[in-house]
Amino acid sequence: MAFIIFEQTLTMLGLMAVGLWLTKSGAIDEVFTKKLGYVLVNVIVPCLALNGFMDPPEGAQISDFLLSFGLSLLLLVIAAAVGFVAFGRRKPIEAFGNTVINAGFIGVPIVTAVFGPSAMFYVAATVALNNIIQFTYGCWLLTGDTSLIKPKAILTNPVVVASVLGVILFVTGFQLPAPVASGVKIMSNANTAVAMIILGSQLAGLDWKTAFNDVTAFVSIALRLVVAPLLSILVLKVLGFTLTPLVAAIFIDVICPMGVNTAVMAQQFDMDYEHAVKIVCLSTILCVVTMPLMFQLATIVLGS
Question: For the CA atoms of 99, 254, 23, 220, what is the dihedral angle to 10 degrees?
Answer without folding.
Answer: 50
